[in-house]
């Protein structure tokens, strides 16, 4: 079984688990399995923008074998306009910074992310996991993939940290993880990454990790997706509850993008 499959299924299932609870406050709900409806009124097992943009990135790498910035940005645009990589071709969630970058894209210059400190949502962090599977990828390339939509140094640095962490887990290296209390599970990239590290490093199975992540509340889909990607790599596809894989929608889209 490929590690990319472990990662992407772990990610997509985390996303789908979190979608019904997005924006809900910690302690006001208790997620124990995959359900439908809730915040976005979607069917159970529906993944969101996080997975679609991750799959768009995968599909580009699959086609070219290397990072082609303009092609990735074109695929993001097709997702936004035509619903490519989205379940039923419906885009029901998009971050402001990502949307403004896609609007700015002229088809030529792909680096459309804002550099200001207010543009540090988790919108680039939530789509860079496939980069961990590109041989010899450099920090500059990871930075540039963030810059497509998020060009502030904080977003860039956290993307690099996350991709390198994923690679360490892929390679079975010992990783030392620390997080800051209190755990603020917001969409601010630093809070999101801190929440991910907390959920991942304080649990010992895929299921435990993603349930801990989603029950933090706040930006549940993105935090659980990112944590689920790492947990998928660590514990493997076979550790993901069968029932959740069964309920997950869009498996044909996922499988067509894996490389
Ligand atoms: Mg989302």
UniProtKB/TrEMBL annotation:
Keywords: Hydrolase, Magnesium, Metal-binding. Binds 2 magnesium ions per subunit. Gene3D superfamilies: ADP-ribosylation/Crystallin J1 (1.10.4080.10). Mg(2+) binds at residues 48-50, 219, 221-222. InterPro entries: ADP-ribosylglycohydrolase, Ribosyl_crysJ1, Ribosyl_crysJ1_sf. Its cofactor is Mg(2+). Belongs to the ADP-ribosylglycohydrolase family. This is ADP-ribosylglycohydrolase. It comes from Bullifex porci. The lineage of its organism: Bacteria, Pseudomonadati, Spirochaetota, Spirochaetia, Spirochaetales.
């Amino acid at each position: 079984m490929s590690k990319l499959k472990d990662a992407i299924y772990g990610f997509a299932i985390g996303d789908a688990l979190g979608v019904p609870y997005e924006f809900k406050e910690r302690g006001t709900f208790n997620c124990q399995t995959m359900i439908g409806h809730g915040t976005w009124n979607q069917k159970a097992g529906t993944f969101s923008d996080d997975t679609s943009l991750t799959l768009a990135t995968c599909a580009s790498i699959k086609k070219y074998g290397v990072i082609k910035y303009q092609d990735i940005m074109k695929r993001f645009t097709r997702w936004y306009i035509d619903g490519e990589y989205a379940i039923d071709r419906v885009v029901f969630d998009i971050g402001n910074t990502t949307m403004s970058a896609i609007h700015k894209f002229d088809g030529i210059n792909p680096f459309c992310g804002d550099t200001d400190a207010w543009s540090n949502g988790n919108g680039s962090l939530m789509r860079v996991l496939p980069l961990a599977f590109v041989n010899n990828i450099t920090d500059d390339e990871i930075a540039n993939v963030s810059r497509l939509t998020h060009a502030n140094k904080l977003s860039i640095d956290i993307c690099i940290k996350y991709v390198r962490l994923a690679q360490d887990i892929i390679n079975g290296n010992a990783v030392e993880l620390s997080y800051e209390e209190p755990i603020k599970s917001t969409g601010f990239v630093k809070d999101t990454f801190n929440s991910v590290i907390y959920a991942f490093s304080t649990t010992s199975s895929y299921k435990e990790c993603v349930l801990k992540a989603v029950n933090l509340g706040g930006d549940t889909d993105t935090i659980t997706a990112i944590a689920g990607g790492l947990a998928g790599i660590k514990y493997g596809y076979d550790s993901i509850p069968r029932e959740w894989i069964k309920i997950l929608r869009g498996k044909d889209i996922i499988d067509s993008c894996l490389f």
